[in-house]
Amino acid sequence: MSNTHRPLICAHRGASAAYLGNTLEAFHGAREQGADWVELDIRVTSQGELVVHHDATYADGRVVWATLASDRPKEVPTLEQSLQACAGMGVNIEIKNSPGDFGGSEVPEDFSFEGQRVGDLMARVVSSRPQSLSEGQPILVSSFDWPSLQQVRDLLPPLHTAWLFADLDRDPLQLDRSATAGDVAVNPWEPLIDQALMNRCTELGLQVNAWTVDDPDRIRELARLGVSSIITNEPAQARAALGL
Questions:
Q1: Which of 107, 109, 128 is nearest to 50 (CA)?
Q2: Is residue 27 pLDDT above 70, yes or no?
Q3: Torsion of the alpha carbons at 123, 125, 127 and 131, rounded to the nearest 10
Q4: Which of 13, 97, 198, 207 might form a disulfide with 228, Cβ 3.0–4.6 angstroms?
Q5: Is 150 exposed, middle or buried (0-12, 13-18, 19+ CB in 10 A)?
């Protein structure tokens, strides 16, 4: 997400204030509201399918990893469907693959939680996109899970990656590791962003994508600080806050 004269507007799970998040309707709504990018979440099933869903369980209580993609709730899209729905916009794909975030207690012994599994699957999906789609759709892969990001870097080096974090105090050197590993950006929780963080990221050559921001005053403040993008539930409101 390159920064030009203003932060890019990235719709958090699509236009999720107006539509159910992480749905095709929310992605279409993001385009209608003028979003530049869409942020969405992917999870892997035990059969190696990638579905777009934030939580470890569906609304009906079924665990995502233990449910076949063919049996998922009708409103839950696959990654392929989501990329098509987001044509013309960039897509920030967040990999949900952190240990302990799979829901339920009965996990098959042969089910891998390693980054290799989801990273490999996602790389295949992204690299198999039609040329007409891929040319107009930049991709950024983000995750709290470092092994997942590393696998994406190894399998699909041209793909841009970003470390996602909500607590820098636990590992203050992680920014340096992120830059060294080849990330183009970091995606910090919005309250962590101040001038000092921006200065450090600038020194390391890292862009900053702020999540999740709906307050107009804070959006304008973050723009003045120089963030590259604003991840928001309300793309139209964010555009208005920036006078767009």
A1: 128
A2: yes
A3: -160
A4: 207
A5: middle
Condensed to tens digits (0 to 9), the pLDDT of residues 59-95 reads: 999 999 889 999 999 999 999 999 999 999 999 999 9
CB of 206 closer than 8 Å to CB of 183: yes
CATH of the domain at 29: 3.20.20.190
pLDDT of residue 143 exceeding 90, the answer is yes
Q: 185 near 141, Cβ under 8 Å?
A: no
Rounded distance, CA 234 to CA 60, Å?
Answer: 27
In a domain, 1, yes or no: no
Q: Is residue 2 part of a domain?
A: no
- Radius of gyration (Cα) for the chain, nearest Å? 17
How many domains, in total, are found in the chain? Answer: 1
Structural domain including 217 reads: 8-241
Per-residue pLDDT averaged across 98-108, rounded? 65
Angle between the N-to-C axes of helices 174-181 and 195-204, in degrees from 0 to 180, rounded to the nearest 10: 30
| Model confidence pTM above 0.90 | yes
pLDDT for the residue 147: 84
Residue 84 lies in a domain: yes
Q: Is residue 199 part of a domain?
A: yes
Tell me the average pLDDT across 39-68: 92
pLDDT at residue 5, as a whole number? 63
